[in-house]
Amino acid sequence: MKVVSLFSGAGGLDLGFKKAGFDIVWANEFDKSIWDTFRYNFPETTLDTRSITDVKSADIPDADGIIGGPPCQSWSEAGAGRGIDDKRGKLFYEYIRILDDKKPKFFLAENVSGILLPRHRNAFNSIVEDFSSIGYDVQWSLLNASHYGVPQDRKRVIIIGFSNDIDVSYRYPAPLFRPVTLKDAIGSLPPPLPALQYNKANNPDNLAMPNHEYMNGGFSTIYMSRNRVRGWDEVSFTIQAGGRHAPIHPSAPKMKFIEQNVRIFKPGHEHEYRRLSVRECARIQTFPDGFIFKYTNIADGYKMIGNAVPVEFARVLALSIKDTLEDVGFRV
Questions:
Q1: Rounded to an integer, what distance in angstroms lies between the CA atom of residue 305 and that of residue 41?
Q2: What is the sign, positive or negative, of the torsion defined by CA atoms of 175, 176, 178, 181?
Q3: Which of 24, 72, 108, 180 is an active site residue?
Q4: pLDDT in tens, 234-279
Q5: Is 281 a catalytic residue?
Q6: Crossing angle of helices 118-133/91-102, nearest 10°?
Q7: 141 Cα distance to chain centroid
Q8: Is the model's pTM score more than 0.70?
Q9: How far is it, in rounded angstroms, from Cα 64 to Cα 206?
C-alpha cells in the first residue's frame, strides 16, 4: 500500500511504516537542515520541500494512507504552550485539508502529550471532531513508546482514523511485557568523540561509527534542577530535540540532590558526566546504525532525532494498521 508522509522530519515514522511493508511514495518537509538526511536515507521517495501551506492537494499523489506529526512545540508542556493560537498549531488544519481532499483509507497523526492539557483540550477535541466530520472513524490514545520496544519514556498522543467506507474494528497494539533498557540499546557502543569547536561535526572518517559524537558546553540551571542520569538497567529519559538537554550517559553516577530544583554532579566524578552522543540518541530512538544523519552543526543532529517518532514505535503502530486492513480484505 502507498503512503504519503506530511511533516516528515528525518523520517522516523516513515521508516517504521516502510519496515511494516508500506511504500512511502511522497513526503513533505520544510526544514532545509533535514533535506540531505531524508534524501540520503529515502532515495526512492519524492521529497517536496515547500511549506505545507503552499502545497495543493492536487500536487500530492493518491495513496492508501497519510501519516505525519504536525509540529509539536505549540502544544509542549515545557514550552509557551500557545497551542492552536500559534501558527504551528494551526498546521493541524493543513493536515485535515489534505486528508479531506485525498480521502485515503486511513491516517495516523502523532503529537506530544501536552496537547491533552486542560488549556488545549477544547482545541484538541475540535481537531478530533474535524477528522470525524470529513468521513473518518477516529480513535486516539496516549501511549508510552517504552511499552513498544523503545528504550525511552516517551508519551505521545496517537490519532488513527479509518475511512467510514471501510468497516473495521481497530485496537491499539498491546504493550510488550519486557522493557528494552539502556544497556540493551547502547551498551555495546565504543566511546564517542566530543564535537569540534563551536559544536561542529567531526570528520566522519575519525568517528568509530557514523554520528557517534556528542555536544560540548555547560549545563543550564534548568538542566541541573533534576537528575538527568538513568542507569543501565533503566529506560532513557525522553530524547528531546535540543542537544543541550540530551540525557547524561548511564555510566555516570546519579546526580546529587542539594535542595528542591538544585542538583549537582557527584563531587569527584565530574569528568564522568557527558551528554549522550547523536548516535546513542538515535539508537534510543531505535534508528538503525545504517541510518545516517547529515549535518554540519551537531545541534541539527540532535534536533532531527529528538523530533522524530521512534522507528520501532512507528513499526508496531503500522503493523496494527496493516493487520486491521488485511482483516477486511486489503493487502499491504
A1: 14
A2: negative
A3: 72
A4: 999 999 999 999 999 999 999 999 999 999 999 999 999 999 999 9
A5: no
A6: 10
A7: 16
A8: yes
A9: 43
